[in-house]
Write a structure and sequence with these properties.
- By secondary structure, the chain is mainly α.
- It is built from 4 helices and no strands.
- It has helices at 12-17, 22-31, 36-43, 45-50.
Length: 64
């Protein structure tokens, strides 16, 4: 099963034990064979859409 959204665990408890940066998380999904465009959507468009902010966040547009 492929997740809709991915993120990094840059929070205080995570920083004490292990830190998984967004770059590391993206790389892991690339190694699993997912297309780059899907991974990018999983890191910005999909989370913004899930939170109801897709009209303000999660995409690259001319003029924004």
């Amino acid at each position: 099963m492929i997740p809709d959204c991915i993120s990094a665990d840059i929070i205080m408890p995570g920083r004490l034990d292990s830190v998984h940066s967004m770059t590391e998380m993206i790389t892991r999904f690339l190694v699993l064979g997912l297309p780059f465009y899907e991974i990018i959507a999983m890191t910005n468009h999909n989370p913004a859409n899930t939170l109801g902010y897709n009209d303000k966040l999660g995409s690259l547009k001319i003029g924004n």
